[in-house]
Amino acid sequence: MKKRSLHIVLSLFVMLSLMLACGSEGGYEEDEYYTEEPAAQESGDEAPPPSSPGDVVFDFGFDPTQNGFSFPNYGDDLGATNLTAYEMRRLFGDGACARIDGDECTLTPPAEQWMEQINDAMSGGHCEGFAVLSMLMYTGQIAPSDFGGSTASDLDINDEFLQREIAYWWATQTTDPTVSQVIKGTPVEILDIVQQMEFSGETFTIGIYKEDGSGGHAITPIGVEDKGDGLYAILVYDNNYPGETRELLVDTRDNSWLYEASINPDVEPDLYSGNADTMTLDLTPTSARLGVQACPFCEGGYSSAGGKLAAPSQSMNQIFLDGEGHILIEDNEGHRLGYVDGKIINEIPGAQYSAYRMGEVNAPEPVYWLPAGLEVSVTIDGSDLTEETLTDLIMIGPGFSIGVEGIYLEPGQVDVAWFYPNDEMIAYETTADESPNLVIGVENPNAEADYYFEVYGTDMVGGGTITLWLDSKAGDLLINTEKLNGEGFFNFYLTRITDELEEEFYAEEIPLQEGALVYVNYAEWTDANPEGIYFGVDLDGDGVIDDEYVVDDSQ
């Protein structure tokens, strides 16, 4: 019989199956958090037996009607609770906390910023959390009874603890060692690894993507069926279709794959496909997600429940874009990372990116990873927009977070931000009328307090450039308006966190003069100081303070 192409063979099966879409040990108690990794199971060298058309080559025993959730993947439509400080401490250990009072963790400012970015990203879908948690419940590593049922299908979508558990496992797709252990392979290689699940003792989630790297969706592999003539179906639980067993087809003859997917339950199905060259299938081992994850924002190394782990050979900074549009990152040598002509490129040595698996048609920008200390410019490109979008751009690294929030990016608007992580400095340039929030958060494990700053409501009529720089040694926050096109006002907010308390300072309508350099002497302020915060202004950039005044707390 002549070999038939995948698309011809597929037509025999589409009517039967295809229409897709698209995360602890013991209990979930508020006074405990999971840190222990289950014992690894021994791997064997057994190969799957020969099969015939119609044979189920591998059946893991996972039944989507019982072991899958009875409700579909959700985004921000549910109003669900995502990560809280409790989950952050569970993910990263005590290093995520600026202070701990009993069982209550107050996050460091960089940890708070990281949590905000991750929670915002979940608005498009939680499929990764669904895919992971359902398998962990099936294998007995997490008990469904801790959430009120005997199986995953018994559980209630409105249970806040379950929502937070789904969010917890969703978040592991953005952390190490999970990210570094993702297996990318050809369709046949992915098929072979899934077939070995019975013997390897490892379970996985499958990530599927479009050829440009977008549209990431996570599904749970539960078996393999021989369809005949070199065609195999990886049987999956797809959390957008509760109670169904669905099929991802792999053609071993031309090393291609195909899946009809609606990565959001409310969106019409779309055909996902790839081959050995596209590398648009991957597998994430469940074991990589267990235990404390490496902390991307902890000062002095990666945190653990018992203290600090050894720092990695190369620390990384992460860049998040929250909003539509694309970004292009460029180092001082002209190497680029980000979107060029609709596709992601990576020319920066040591850099990488990871697309979210979430179930969003217009999925957010990937998380970009850069070598720590690397100075970069980031172009925020609204050329492809059809309407205005609210956009944030944040860099988070060991001990700091820095960025610009509240950009009203219009179609065709192109802004630029420069990040200087070693100097804790950001410069933002726009030609539009903007009023952005510039933010900096720092963890100071060897100092008296951690700090978070916002300079917001800044008038940038006609555009220009504004620079925010934290001089931790001098205890000054500097605002440089040398390249601002006009004068106006700004608001200032400060949070100070010590081992004993959290203090806040707020002031409105502080004059911002064109060409000025404003010094905010934050280190001298505490709530116990009734005199407010000292502001010094260098009007002409000669290093001499020309004006000085004290700003009182407006709260």
Task: Walk me through the structure.
The protein has an eleven-stranded antiparallel β-sheet with strand order 17-16-15-20-23-24-27-28-31-32-33, with no helix packed on it. Mean pLDDT is 85; it is low at 1-47 and 302-313. It is 13% helix and 36% strand. The chain is elongated and about 85 Å long. Strand 15 and strand 16 form a beta hairpin. The chain is built from eight helices and 33 strands. Helix 5 packs across helix 6 (160-171). The protein folds into two domains: 6-22 and 48-288, no CATH class; 424-555, no CATH class. With 555 residues, the chain is mainly beta.
Number of domains: 2
Estimated share of beta-strand residues: 35-45%
Q: Could you list the spans in which at least 5 consecutive residues all have pLDDT below 50? A: 1-47, 302-313
Oligomeric state of the chains present here = single chain
Mean pLDDT: 85
Global shape: elongated
Distance between the termini: 81 Å
Strand arrangement in the largest pleated sheet: 17-16-15-20-23-24-27-28-31-32-33
Largest sheet: 11 strands, antiparallel
- What's the alpha carbon Rg, rounded to whole Å? 25 Å
Total strands: the figure is 33
Class by SSE composition: mainly beta
Level of helix content?
10-25%
The number of distinct helices, counting runs of at least 4 residues, comes to 8
